[in-house]
Design brief:
Layout lengths: L1 E10 L2 E11 L4 E6 L5 H8 L7 E6 L2 E3 L6 H10 E4 L11 H11 L5 H14 L15 H13 L5 E5 L7 H16 L3 E5 L3 H7 L2 E6 L2 E6 L1 H4 L2
Parallel strand pairs: 3-8, 3-9, 6-7, 7-8
Antiparallel strand pairs: 1-2, 1-4, 4-5, 9-10
Bound molecules: adenosine-5'-triphosphate (ATP) and magnesium ion (MG).
Length: about 230
Amino acid sequence: MIAIDSLSKSHGSFRVLHEVSLAGGEGCVTALVGASGSGKTTLLRCLNGLETFDAGGITVAGHRLEPGPHPPTALERLRRDVGMVFQQFNLFPHLSVIDNVTLAPRMVSRMVAEEARTVGLGLLDRVGLRSFAAARPATLSGGQQQRVAIARALAMRPRVMLFDEPTSALDPTMTAEVLDVIVDLAGGGQTMVVVTHDHAFAKRAATWVVELAAGRVVRQGPPDELLP
Ligand SMILES: Nc1ncnc2c1ncn2[C@@H]1O[C@H](COP(=O)(O)OP(=O)(O)OP(=O)(O)O)[C@@H](O)[C@H]1O
Ligand SMILES: [Mg+2]
């Protein structure tokens, strides 16, 4: 489902990623760990085509990414199969919660409004927020907003989900409610890559841990062996 092979990327003369390789099959949950600046976000952004890279290659959910600019049509196809959840929830502030969740299925997949709403309400149920469907994002807590962002990403039924430190902007209570949703997804067999500093969470959710340092993979293995 995910194969990254000898990926390198520079910003000017600065090597952000250096011959990074990793692989994961269907249902694998990869925790990406490493110090600040080690390249975790950059690697995740490469995986859904938000960043270009200089050398190596990526195959994700059956899509192939090569060095250099990605053709827009290829990116469009890729993003139907690869969902991403960011640190800052990035919800559309002027849309209700349900409209945030159903926008992509309606626009990208041309799902009819009624069906999109049914699917969207089901997803909001799954993240415990069905009663907030009509609310604006700004009236929700950070943890609730992040759960809406997860529901929104799931609405495209992505084969792979990417999470970039999904709880770093949240306090401990809100963190727990978001992590529970992600652990639940992992248990349901969703293929994921999760950037996290939270080792306890990585042990609960991950099937594999990859540690980056200064743009290189320095260690990888099962959570119980790799994490203290
Ligand atoms: N657009 C850019 N131009 C120049 N350097 C960049 C750019 N984006 C990232 N970098 C550098 O690349 C390195 C890796 O950044 P990245 O954001 O991927 O790290 P990270 O592991 O996600 O860190 P954090 O844990 O702080 O989120 C950093 O040294 C960063 O300064
Ligand atoms: Mg980062």
